[in-house]
Amino acid sequence: MKLTFTTLGCPAWSLETIIARAAEYGFDGVDFRGLEGTMNVYELPAFATDYAETRSRFEAAGLAVSCFSSSITLVSPARAADNAEELERYAELCVRFGTRYIRAFGGKVEDQGRDAAIAEAAEQLARMEPILRQANVKLLVETHDDWTRCEDMLALLEGTSPETVGVLWDVHHPYRMVGESPERTWEALGSRIAYTHWKDSLPEPGGDAGRFRYRFMGEGDVPFGEIRSVLQRNGYDGWYAFEWEKKWHPELEEPELAFPQYVKFMRALDNGGSGEERR
């Protein structure tokens, strides 16, 4: 089981701290979603001009850069130019760091309706494909926003190549937001799932599906044992990324608590248990 974390969970950490803590806690990689207040990490010297030194530091720590999590949004005409620049810059970073994946969002379906949104996304993906192929990179669309339900994701993927476009299964969202079973998600999307996000939560009492509280792993009700079983049975050997969204929810516990607890929980889960249920 290859464990990584997104840097959303440690917005106050420096690059030096990220590398040191990742190795100390027992992670295998780091997924970059911002660093020291800058969301597009390719703008920072550590990835722009000093990337060789940064790469050497990761190698010395025995860590990989598992993914670059971008803000690319397929259904957003206003972001078309930004999408193109982000893709080119992150593809360049993937080549520099030996990284295979760039995360993207499907985006919001507004008044244009889902069919028009799918057509818009298809146009964006067609323009992106040559860049992805040249860099040998795969764009991963996350089960998120208006593309959480597996049927909607399937429609979005139609006509794309599995070599260049895949799925990032955020195991929390389909279960929590639309009540989709892990078996159903895998049945529909398994052949395209290349990466996973993990986090736990509990629904707010009396609230709808969109109202919940994030919890430490094992302190919510997301069926991680079932999800892990589905992945094991089907030969999944990709990354298990902890997405502790402290950047967006500063009230969450500090990464010094959440990150090592995640590693303990997941290693126990990997060894056939139910995970480390409590801190």
Brief synopsis:
Keywords: Isomerase. This is Sugar phosphate isomerase/epimerase. The protein has about 280 residues and is an alpha/beta fold.
Layout of SSEs?
Blueprint: E1 2-5, H1 15-25, E2 29-32, H2 45-48, H3 51-60, E3 64-75, H4 80-97, E4 101-107, H5 114-135, E5 138-142, H6 150-157, E6 165-170, H7 172-178, H8 182-189, E7 193-198, E8 200-203, E9 212-215, H9 224-233, E10 239-242, H10 255-270
Parallel strand pairs: 1-10, 2-3, 3-4, 4-5, 5-6, 6-7, 7-10
Antiparallel strand pairs: 8-9
Protein name: Sugar phosphate isomerase/epimerase
Domain Xylose isomerase-like TIM barrel: 19-268
Pfam family, one: AP_endonuc_2
What does this molecule look like?
It comes from Paenibacillus flagellatus. Keywords: Isomerase. This is Sugar phosphate isomerase/epimerase. One of its GO terms (molecular function) is isomerase activity. Pfam families: AP_endonuc_2. This protein is of the alpha/beta class and 279 residues long. The chain has one domain (2-270): Alpha-Beta Barrel (TIM Barrel), CATH 3.20.20.150. 41% of the residues lie in helices and 20% in strands. It is built from ten helices and ten strands. The protein has helices at residues 15-25, 45-48, 51-60, 80-97, 114-135, 150-157, 172-178, 182-189, 224-233, 255-270; strands at residues 2-5, 29-32, 64-75, 101-107, 138-142, 165-170, 193-198, 200-203, 212-215, 239-242. The chain has an eight-stranded parallel β-sheet. Strands 8-9 form a two-stranded antiparallel sheet. Helix 4 links the parallel strand 3 and strand 4 (101-107). The longest helix is centred in the middle third of the chain and has 22 residues, at 114-135. The radius of gyration is 18 Å and the shape is globular.
